[in-house]
Amino acid sequence: MTSKADHRMWTGKQAGLIGIAILLLAGFCFGQPTVSLSPKDGPPTTALRVSGSGFTPYAQLDIYFDSQDQALAVADAAGAFNQVAIQAPKSAVPGAHWVSVIERSRHLAAQDRFQVSVDWTEYHTKDMRRWNPYENVLNVDNVGSLQQLWSYHTADYVYSSPAVVKGVVYIASFDGHVYALDCGTGTKLGSYADHFRQSSPAFLNGVVYVGTYRGDVVALSRTGGLLWDDSIGYEIESSPTIANGVVYIGSYCCDVYALDARTGGLLWSYHTGAEVFSSPAVADGVVYVGSLDGNVYALDANTGTKLWGYATGGAVWSSPAVAYGAIYFGSYDHNVYALNAKTGALLWSYTTGWAIGSSPAVANGVVYIGSNDHYVYALDARTGTQLWNYRTGAMEEGASPTVANGVVYIGSEDHNMYALNANTGTLLWSYQTGEMIVSSPAVVNGVVYVGSRDGNVYAFGLPKGMAPQPPKRPDPKTLRPDFSLKPVSTTE
After folding, report:
1. Cα–Cα distance for residue pair 303/306, rounded to 1 Å
2. What confidence tens digit (pLDDT) does each residue in 313-327 have?
3. Burial (CB count within 10 angstroms: exposed 0-12, middle 13-18, buried 19+), residue 325
4. Is 62 within 8 Å of 134 (Cβ atoms)?
5. pTM for this structure?
6. Which residues of 146-183 are buried (b: 16+ CB within 10 A; e: fewer)?
7. What 3-state class would DSSP assign to 33?
8. What is the set of domains in the chain, with CATH numbers?
9. Exposure check for the chain: N or C terminus, fewer CB within 10 A?
């Protein structure tokens, strides 16, 4: 008989592709030197350490990122150097870039590849703000040219929000599956069957975490094996947040749970007065979460001890955002709130025209949030003053905005996906799907990923030839040193 774990393994003819390593290109060199990078991939502004060997002893070595000479190292008596610091430029667009190490004598050179890419690992993203500070492809000038790159049809509603990691989109559907889709093509790499609905997957260190409607939190390997399955016993609509080896999640039974990310073992739980649909935000050792009992709670992340609570006048579906020493969230009492993150003291509130189930995005001193009065609001994060609003045809309570490179992205009950100017609220682009959009978008590497109640997962990007591309692998013979650089010390 097929075991429970076997029955619920990833399926799909391409599931094995998820674990296949990226093909490495051989380094260009005039002799036999080698160069290595740590890390090998990451977002723009990543700090890299460059090491090498096989160079001429005591040679001066220029270290380039693409064509920019960033550092001058000196080889030791064995022709090696270690851990020289350079940085991927903020302008480095997604794709393969090259680090070149060239002797000033021009006798020897070697290269290694650095992959610029950004991951969106969970509902909040890592910073609890639903903001991608690294996006450098889509902007206010070109987002109006977005077009559908692909769509993948599931068998039911897609309320879940996507996680995007290492070229794979992970997203849940009301058809009971979590899907792994190829970022570039939308091809199904695999699926995992359980009672999934609205909980959004979270990803960390090769593991996918997600809650089920039958009351389990499951952990899956990147290739789809069941690592653990912890039964809470009540429906889960909350999305997991992972911090310091712990999975935090809310449930329909009114509790917030902390589970060991490695084993699924229960570390603690905290009982609120009603269902917890809000997704926890974790920052500076504190878990912030809303409850339908009308309260927002601050809990010690290690013990679950209540640090403070704040009572609003309505249910709190909204998931808090943490920034600037404050937490921001919406309530069904029609208000957006800002509270002191340490004490829970009210900093300000702003009243909209109806209930708020949307979770805020916070970027560049501005709070962006949707309201069931059909408006998207931009509020000053310090004072709560309205900066602008934009009226959609309707606003679903769960749809939440994402901010990237001066653009606010949000779905709506009127079936549309919107892109708005983050400074002015001006409409830059919209796309109509077949049903309302509750899913909150992930915006990474020049692509917008989102689900729709029409059962589809969508990817939107710029037309071919319009998106900026990384420069070609440089010929070391063409690179010119910066003679103003001073030699840097290396770590043996």
Report:
1. 9
2. 999 999 999 999 999
3. exposed
4. no
5. 0.92
6. beebbbbebeebbbbbbbbbebbbbbbbbbbbbbbbbb
7. coil
8. 31-117+469-478 (2.60.40.230), 131-461 (2.130.10.10)
9. N
